[in-house]
């Protein structure tokens, strides 16, 4: 027996050996798990951290359901104004507006309206203003007295303007001083409908237009009672934002407090902090700039640099001047920046993050190569939609990232779609069919308590039109995004095309976006808008591309022929080319196609230069009247 406390050295060696063995096994196990995770689940930790932020935000919203009132974005702003009153909130044309400044000025607006207009809580007020700090002061002031605000596109005129004001039920219209003239021709109609007009001016020669600035200067900046803005439900409408579709009259999408709060969390989810400076050049009447841009700035307690209008030539100098760290973009905006002359200072800036949508792969790669290692995070979602996809990884070409947990929280599906019939494919029971991994399908999002669809103001018919019912089982309802998507093995979701933009030629589906990407790689092409045109005697629509040439370049038909024949299948190659001086766009930089489709390819009615693909000459040659007639009479083989 060993003396008390004594152990032979060989026993100690055995224990140590066993301990080292366990440590070695643990190290090997951890290393192996790490290798397997990197090989088979490379985005695990990035996904986990991102979802943690999303779930945390969702839990906060759920917990508020049990309280007597909910915290709105306006509540967040007031708290930030109390927490950091002297911090710059908006920088505009060189002038700094602090959180306290905007809070006080919006209080003045609120008091003027309470005294002069006396609106009831819930009364909608239409707002027609350009990007400027007073846009925010009016918006916030009206929110403080419980009035929903309808953001009007300042490009609309006459009939469209009247339609927008009426569709949201507004009885009051506030117009910016620089936009009063846009009311010419409709002012009498507005007054006949008992709609009050208030202009952001000190004086008005027209007695039908009331002035606001003079009254705001005389008003008190004391806060109005918080009870006026309080609400018990996240589902209460707080904004109306009009969709900017390429055809038809705009539709007023109902924006609730829930959607606003979700928008305000966007920058934070992507890693934004209160030290960030956000550059906003998109129009404030659009959800990207207002809900995500301004809302996100408030959510972080950060600073935003607001631009009246996007300027490609001033973009990077503004970013350098104001130490911008986050930019908001739309795909076309990035293209315009890439088309600017190169400078030695292209990568001299502090921008680390870009948040937006519609960035094509070719432009994405060129943008990063040109302007440096900026993490570009795509956010997919429509103004009125109930689904938001986010590419938090920053993978080029993806509009969103999915996994098991995301699908568990947000129910969406990709279903088979018949391009020729322009409708979803149904099985023998009348239900939609899900696509296989990697296959293109129509994106649908389930309407539920977690993902509600609030529709359009004053038009139940349009609201119902966006829904698909009895999709997989009787009684279910899905929001129809109208977008064709594909999801790969790794869970990255890629945009393919809009339903209606995709067309069929020679029995095959042609995705206009994919063709435009290829054309964008040709050095003399600055921008291309791809669409399909009808040819008598032929089924489907033939491909055509309207394009703008880069400055200093000329059209090279042989080079273009070589590129499309090398990179595109025969059915996807544009048969016709139309050269334009300016590309017609919507106010949110979306290409307009309808008028181009309707005008066709007739050289006798189109003044722009037209070209046709010629296989014999291996070239795109001028489209003459003779060639045009030979196409119509089927003498020329297509």
Description of the structure:
With 638 residues, the protein is an alpha/beta fold. It has a domain at 501-632: 2-Layer Sandwich (GMP Synthetase, Chain A, domain 3), CATH 3.30.300. An eight-stranded mixed β-sheet has the order 2-1-11-10-12-13-14-15. A seven-stranded mixed β-sheet has the order 7-6-5-3-4-8-9. Strands 16, 17, 20, 21, 22 and 23 form a six-stranded antiparallel β-sheet that branches. Helix 4 (99-116) crosses helix 5 and helix 13 (331-338) crosses helix 14. The model has no long low-confidence stretch (mean pLDDT 88).
Task: Please describe the topology of this protein.
Layout lengths: L8 H32 L3 H20 L9 H11 L4 E5 L2 E4 H18 L8 E4 L4 H12 L4 E3 L6 H10 L4 E4 L11 H6 L3 E4 L9 E3 L1 H6 L18 E6 L9 E5 H8 L1 H4 L7 E4 L6 H14 L2 E4 L8 H7 L4 E5 H8 L14 E5 L3 H11 L3 E6 L8 E2 L9 E2 L2 H6 L2 E4 L1 E2 L4 E2 L16 E6 L13 H6 L1 E3 L7 E11 L4 E7 L4 E3 L2 E3 L1 H8 L5 E9 L8 E8 L7 H11 L8 E4 L14 H6 L10 E5 L4 E4 L2 H8 L6
Helix pairs in contact: 4-5, 9-11, 13-14
């Amino acid at each position: 027996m060993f003396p008390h406390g004594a152990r032979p050295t060989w026993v100690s060696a055995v224990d140590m050996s066993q301990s080292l063995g366990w440590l070695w096994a643990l190290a090997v196990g951890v290393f192996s798990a790490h290798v397997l995770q990197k090989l088979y689940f490379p985005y695990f930790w990035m996904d986990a951290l991102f979802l943690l932020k999303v779930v945390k935000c969702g839990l906060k919203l759920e917990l508020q359901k049990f309280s007597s009132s909910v915290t709105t974005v306006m509540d967040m702003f007031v708290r930030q104004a109390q927490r950091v009153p002297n911090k710059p909130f908006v920088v505009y044309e060189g002038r700094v507006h602090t959180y306290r400044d905007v809070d006080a000025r919006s209080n003045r607006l609120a008091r003027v309206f309470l005294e002069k207009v006396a609106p009831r809580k819930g009364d909608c007020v239409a707002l027609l203003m350009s990007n400027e700090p007073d846009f925010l002061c009016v918006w916030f002031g009206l929110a403080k007295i419980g009035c929903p605000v309808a953001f009007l596109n300042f490009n609309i005129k006459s009939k469209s303007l009247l339609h927008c004001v009426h569709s949201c039920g507004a009885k009051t219209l506030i117009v910016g001083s620089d936009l009063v003239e846009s009311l010419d021709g409709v002012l009498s109609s507005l007054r006949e409908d008992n709609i009050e007009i208030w202009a952001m001016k000190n004086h008005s020669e027209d007695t039908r237009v009331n002035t606001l600035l003079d009254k705001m200067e005389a008003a008190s900046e004391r806060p109005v009672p918080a009870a006026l803005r309080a609400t018990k439900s996240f589902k209460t409408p707080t904004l109306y934002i009009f969709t900017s579709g390429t055809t038809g009259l705009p539709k007023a999408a109902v924006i609730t407090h829930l959607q606003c709060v979700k928008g305000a969390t966007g920058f934070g989810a992507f890693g934004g902090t209160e030290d960030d400076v956000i550059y906003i050049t998109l129009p404030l009447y659009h959800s990207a700039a207002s809900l995500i841009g301004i809302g996100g700035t408030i959510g972080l307690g950060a600073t935003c640099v607001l631009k009246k209008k996007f300027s490609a030539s001033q973009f990077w100098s503004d970013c350098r001047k104001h130490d911008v760290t986050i930019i908001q973009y739309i795909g076309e905006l990035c293209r315009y920046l890439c088309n600017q002359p190169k400078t030695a200072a292209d990568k001299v800036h502090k921008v680390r993050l870009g948040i937006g949508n519609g960035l094509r792969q070719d432009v994405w790669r060129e943008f990063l190569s040109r302007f440096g290692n900026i993490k570009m995070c795509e956010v997919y979602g429509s103004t009125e939609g109930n689904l938001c996809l986010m590419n938090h990884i920053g993978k080029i070409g993806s509009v969103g990232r999915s996994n098991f947990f995301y699908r568990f929280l947000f129910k969406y599906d990709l279903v088979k779609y018949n391009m020729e019939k322009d409708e979803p494919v149904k099985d023998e029971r009348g239900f939609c069919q899900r696509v296989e991994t990697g296959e293109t399908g129509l994106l649908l999002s389930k309407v539920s308590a977690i993902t509600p669809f609030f529709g359009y103001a004053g038009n139940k018919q349009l609201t119902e039109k966006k829904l698909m019912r009895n999709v997989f089982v009787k009684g279910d309802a899905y929001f129809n995004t109208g977008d064709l998507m594909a999801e790969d093995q790794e869970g990255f979701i890629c945009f393919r095309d809009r339903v209606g933009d995709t067309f069929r030629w020679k029995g095959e589906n042609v995705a206009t976006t994919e063709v435009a990407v290829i054309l964008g790689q040709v050095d003399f092409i600055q921008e291309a808008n791809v669409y399909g045109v009808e040819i008598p005697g032929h089924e489907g629509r033939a491909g055509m591309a309207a394009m703008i040439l880069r400055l200093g370049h000329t059209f090279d038909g042989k080079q273009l022929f070589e590129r499309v024949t090398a990179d595109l299948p025969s059915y996807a190659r544009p048969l016709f080319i139309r050269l334009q001086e300016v590309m017609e766009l919507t106010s949110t930089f979306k290409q307009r196609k309808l008028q181009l489709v309707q005008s066709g390819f007739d050289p006798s009615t189109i003044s722009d230069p037209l070209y046709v693909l010629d296989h014999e000459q291996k070239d795109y040659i001028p489209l003459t009247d003779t060639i045009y007639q030979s196409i119509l009479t089927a003498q020329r083989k297509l």
